[in-house]
Amino acid sequence: MQPIYIDFLNRFDVEALAIDDDEILAAIETSLATQGRGEAVIEPRMHLEPGVSNGHFNVLRGALKAPINLAGVKVVGDFVDNYTLGLPSELATLLLLDPGTGIPRAILDASGITDMRTGGMTAIGAKYLARRSSKVLGHIGARGTAYWNVRLLDRLFDFDEIRIHSRRPESRDAFADRLSQDLGKTVIVTADWRSCVEGADIVVEASRLMAPEPLLHTDWIKPGALVVPYGTMSAVELSLTGIMDKMVVDDWGQCRAGKFGSLRAHVEAGLLSEATLHAELGQIVAGLRPGRETEDETILLWHRGLSLSDIALGHAMLQKAARLGIGQKLRWA
């Protein structure tokens, strides 16, 4: 057997790549279109709960056909108390494989990938589902994915007003300072949920709750807004789906199953079902289903996170790493 080498990108390598906003958005949009055309395989995520701390592992699996032509498995920990140890709540590893032979192709630190691709999914969703004239963003949550939500959304919409809120004042203040510096504009820190989201054109709910709690009230949502809830534990009222003209998900297979997710109760109550679902986002990106059609549509996007996004962004990073000579080759066999 010929020697087999795999590419390895650690956290420092990923940072050195300096993947820019447009590269992230292009990778995510390409993966969504591939999924929408039926040129991908995706399995519902699995959960592993070790039972030794307040957290769990998510295991995401999928494959993309040519031109990417890779299968992938990502394991990402979701441990909400990690901040007490000076660690991110989400630490992840991505394994990429040849879908024809099973040969491992690459191992990447995927903590940054998780944050970037989640923000990319939010932003591409807004590209197709939010009003083009959207100028006010209300964002709940200040964890890692929050930064890329705001940054990539602002890349597409150039907001006049960005509001943020999170449970811990020190967290939201630091988050606002970072965003203000990187985006070159004022970011408003709010003391409560209502003043953050009421009247916003785009509302993103990325809270970190210990248990479901309806903190985002339906009557705060502006008609014509796009609402993107994706917290592990639900923070929305059951009535939220009742005001929506369209409900869109990233993958219905994984949204309808499992114990976690911001709209789990809505699925169990039959408020979100195959009958009430408008489309998967990939179908809209691929041009098979319409996105926003009128200015007055109020639309909901629920994304659980796709392995396909991880694979596509990992592939983009590997291509850039090869061009720049970043990373290591490891002997596997």
Automatic annotation (TrEMBL):
This is Ornithine cyclodeaminase family protein. It comes from the Bacteria. SUPFAM superfamilies: NAD(P)-binding Rossmann-fold domains. GO terms for cellular component: cytoplasm. It comes from Lichenicola cladoniae. Pfam families: OCD_Mu_crystall. Signal peptide: none annotated.
